Amino acid sequence: MFSQVKSQIILLTLSNFSPSYAFRHAFCSILGLSCLLLVMFGLCVLPVYREKAEQTVWNRLKQLTALKKRRLKAQGPMKIGLLGCMAERLKSKLLEREKLLDVIAGPDAYRDLPRLLALARGGQQASNVLLSLEETYADVMPVHRTQGHSAFVSIMRGCDNMCSYCIVPFTRGRERSRPVASILEEVRLLSEQGVREVTLLGQNVNSYRDMSEQVFYGSEPTQLSRGFSTVYRTRQGGLRFADLLDQVSLIDPNMRIRFTSPHPKDFPDEVLHLIQERHNICKQIHLPAQSGSSRVLQAMRRGYTREAYLELVENVRSIIPGVSLSSDFIVGFCGETEEDHQESLSLLRAVRYNIGFLFAYSMRKKTHAYHRLQDDVPAEVKQRRLQELIAAFREEACRVNSSLLGSTQLVLVEGESKRSSEELSGRSDGNVKVIFPKQEVPSLHQSSCTETISPGDYVLVKVTSANSQSMRGYPLCCTTLSETAAHSPDSLLSTLQQQQPSITEPPNDCSHILTTV
């Protein structure tokens, strides 16, 4: 996303934090020159999967370098910078060999950007990719730059799990959690700005533990999911993820709460019961399996077996009936056999996720696998296994979503459908896309009135068709999270039926939505 600042500076970034800090320290005045153009990339590199994302950045950097040379004589100097994980991992190559950048700032060095940019203005290459044991940017309030009704709130940084395929501990550093008070302040501000859904973010979000609090729970040891282990010594004391989730959910009863990305080991029953009890915590959990083979899971250093994972799934579903599950899978990891692959397929079919993130393994430098294991699965085998996993996922996801035909889903409206300006699109509690006609709906509170559906509204939608990617339906009425918590959808529909008896039937001009997407 490009944002123009005083017509001279362009920031290109995927980070909410960096523009906030740039604006606060008035980079326009620091850099001075009215004709200066500054382009800054922010790229978060996922643990193992995103070779294409990195290649896209490489290509764009080369394009910008060519532009920089062309505009130097005619329009003045141009500076190019890179922020985030890729900056930390590829510093020497970016600065010395390719010579594509003027500024590099790692994920823990954003406070140093004013100094780095001042050096770049003086003609020097400037970099800071040092990782920190303490930095959480707790005192810097991010800028909510979009006009949408959803926002992300970072609650922790880094990861201690050291999975053998994962680069995150080496690019993001050790786990450290942002203080609870800072997080609650940001969520309150977002609520005041009209944000209707907040996603708590972290590399290992549910291992959150705020050690800065004065209240400690030293007598209560860290509870892992049954059958799970860690490669590090678990910490004691402080406020845990359940404590944070509890307090966040109390801020605004009409704001949805999600969180990602968790590790399956950090789902004690107290977290699951809290999700079930609070109406505004989405009944959707991401449980990254990575593989269905216990042998491969051991090589990945995931800290659990296939059996322990399935036991966790059973426990989650017993405590949270109707919960929606999503997962990550890696195919073609070091030493993966055809039998291992079949176990991943069978696990995927047994659990029946409605959302999946599936990738072929790509070796990363610095990781345990890079130093200790051999990337011995041929590329063509990886791709074949990936396609088989994708096909199995789509089949099962279609079944899961189709099981909701005829049900009434509470949907947070995001905006117009990408395919038609006559339709709206939003997300269900289970995080599945729901598409429905753009039309007025009966008012729940005034019997003879209708109201227009707008982005940010919560709408009850009757599901009429589904596939592996989305569901379709027709809107019944606008409502709120609190209203649907106090009264079941059936009760609300009963109220509507008394006002308009035909409300549960599709309107005549919406018959096309009965066909499968």
Automatic annotation (TrEMBL):
| Keyword annotations of the record | 4Fe-4S, Iron, Iron-sulfur, Membrane, Metal-binding, S-adenosyl-L-methionine, Transmembrane, Transmembrane helix
Question: What's an example of a GO molecular-function annotation for this chain?
Answer: 4 iron, 4 sulfur cluster binding
User: What range(s) does the TRAM domain occupy?
Assistant: 402-477
Q: Look up the record and name the cofactor or cofactors this protein needs.
A: [4Fe-4S] cluster
- Please list the residue ranges annotated as the Radical SAM core domain: 145-399
In its UniProt entry, what is this protein called? Mitochondrial tRNA methylthiotransferase CDK5RAP1
Broad class of enzyme this protein falls into:
transferase
Q: What are the transmembrane regions?
A: 21-49
Q: Give the family from UniProt.
A: Belongs to the methylthiotransferase family. MiaB subfamily.
Query: Which EC number(s) are documented for this chain?
Result: 2.8.4.3
Q: Does the keyword Transmembrane helix apply?
A: yes
Record keywords: Nucleotide-binding included? no
Q: Which GO terms describe its biological process?
A: regulation of protein metabolic process
Under Pfam families, the record lists: Radical_SAM, TRAM
Catalysis performed (reactions) = N(6)-dimethylallyladenosine(37) in tRNA + (sulfur carrier)-SH + AH2 + 2 S-adenosyl-L-methionine = 2-methylsulfanyl-N(6)-dimethylallyladenosine(37) in tRNA + (sulfur carrier)-H + 5'-deoxyadenosine + L-methionine + A + S-adenosyl-L-homocysteine + 2 H(+)
Residues forming the MTTase N-terminal domain are 50-122
PANTHER family (alphabetical) = CDK5 REGULATORY SUBUNIT-ASSOCIATED PROTEIN 1, MITOCHONDRIAL TRNA METHYLTHIOTRANSFERASE CDK5RAP1
